[in-house]
Amino acid sequence: MKIESVDVVVTSPGRNFVTLVVTTSDGVVGLGDATLNGRELAVASYLRDHVAPLLVGREAHNIEDTWQYLYRGAYWRRGPVTMAAIAAVDMALWDIKGKVAGLPVYQLLGGRSRRGALAYAHASGSTLEALFRSIRTNLDDGFRAIRVQTGVPGLGKVYGVGRDLAAGERYDYEPAGRVAVPVEESWDTGAYLRHIPTVFEAVRAEFGPALPLLHDAHHRLTPNQSAQLGRSLEPYDLFWLEDCTPGENQEGLRRVRSQTTTPLAIGEVFTGVFDYQTLITEQLIDYVRSSVTHAGGISAVRKLMDFAAMYQIKSGFHGPTDVSPVGMAAALHLDVAIHNFGIQEYMQHNSQTLEVFRTSYTFVDGLLDPGELPGLGVELDLEAAASFEYTPAYLPVNRLLDGTMHDW
Ligand code: EZ4
Ligand code: CO
User: Fold this and answer.
1) Is-contact 173 321, C-beta < 8 A?
2) pLDDT of res. 247
3) Residue 171's CB: how many other CB atoms inside 10 A?
4) Strand pairing partners for 362?
5) Is 37 in the pocket of ligand 1 (CB under 6 A)?
6) Which of 10, 135, 77 is nearest to 300 (CA)?
7) Structure letter (DSSP) for residue 159
8) Cβ of 60: how many Cβ atoms within 10 Å?
């Protein structure tokens, strides 16, 4: 069964998505997510101009060989553009294999290891009152684990805090920043470090000791500041502290790890196993944060998680709304199949996105499930996709109060 055509669909139902559509000589269609938030067209071009022409005529069943062909064949290794492109091809070929076999992809990965994948929601508020409302709405929706982000006194809008919602109002999706140039936010690490422990103290007092709570520091701290934060949060028993420090310098996590028992999650911006090598072999983290979309696809993330399993490290795959429903479905098939599943991030896509991508995954009693359709279980409505034209969008940038550029 040969690959007959390869198309790239760019659509923007509220935010931009890049989807690879692979069609075989038997007419089987596979989908892959290639969305790289804020740099979408670079991956679309990489796929259209440099990958699609190489795929036509190849055997669709040879997933591993195609992965190696694209990775080794590029000569230039790793990098988010390359790895997102390879991920999309890999997902599409798993989707095809599942459809041909008549089995959901998780069955091809070894079958089910659990009833469903524990999901965590995003709660936020600029004030404690708004935050509590947001947590309650998520609990009412069935979530059993909650990420907590709040405003910091003295700062304007900060990462992870959406518009304050009324009671019962749903957090539709994270705004894509559809702006011609990035919005600028400001940051003060001292104010943040002083404020966050008071927030978790209040949340624990209100919601009790058992609710799993998560927090994302979004790459803003040094290892020593991370150690300080980890220690100050120990009384509140976090499920994890995410991206405390930028991960490029893996050795930096040694300092954090040796100073605090707060569990650590890292890796949403990583592109593959080599970014994790020291973190995993020295057990410097507890959770792998990669998305299937940004770390080379189902094949690569499966291997990454098998490597992590030898060091008792679990999954906590990235699941923001800038991962498309196709990328989300790919994560869910891995979530229910692998032994060392930890938790799955889940932000619901907006209704326009779900018109373009017809999903079959479910969220019941706090658990996500990929469903039983053959392949990944997501369909792309090409007509709906065409009605949402690409719109330039950028993530914000971040400056310290004196104007120095900082990590966002
Ligand atoms: O900022 O996906 O844990 N989740 C995150 C996300 C990222 C966005 C970037 O595109 O950190 O909200
Ligand atoms: Co994050």
Assistant:
1) yes
2) 87
3) 19
4) 369
5) yes
6) 77
7) T
8) 23
Asked if residue 216 has its Cβ within 6 Å of ligand 1, the reply is yes
Rounded to the nearest angstrom, the distance between the alpha carbon of 165 and the centre of ligand 2 is 21
CB atoms within 10 A of CB 58: 17
Tens of pLDDT along 24-54?
999 999 999 999 999 999 999 999 999 999 9
Q: In the block, which residue shows the tokens 């927090």?
A: 215
* DSSP letter (8 states) at residue 46: I
Best residue for ligand 1 mutational test, from 147, 289, 318, 394 (most atoms within 8 Å of Cβ): 318
Distance CA 165, CA 171 (A): 8
Structure confidence at residue 170 (pLDDT) = 76
- What residue owns the CA closest to ligand 1's atom 7? 320
* Atom nearest to 174 CA in ligand 1: 12
List of the chain residues with pLDDT < 70:
171-176
Is the pTM higher than 0.90? The answer reads yes
375 in Cβ contact with 105 (< 8 Å): yes
Neighbours of 269 (CB within 10 A): 18
pLDDT (0 to 100) of residue 295:
98
Half-sphere exposure of 385 (CA within 13 A, CB side): 17
Q: What are phi and psi of 32, to 5 degrees?
A: -135, 145
Distance 269 CA to ligand 2 centre (A): 9
Structural domains of the chain sorted by starting position, each given as residue range(s) with its CATH number in brackets: 3-104 (3.30.390.10), 108-372 (3.20.20.120)
- Distance CA(82)–CA(76), nearest Å, equals 9
Specify the amino acid at residue 395.
L
Structural Rg of the chain based on CA atoms: 21
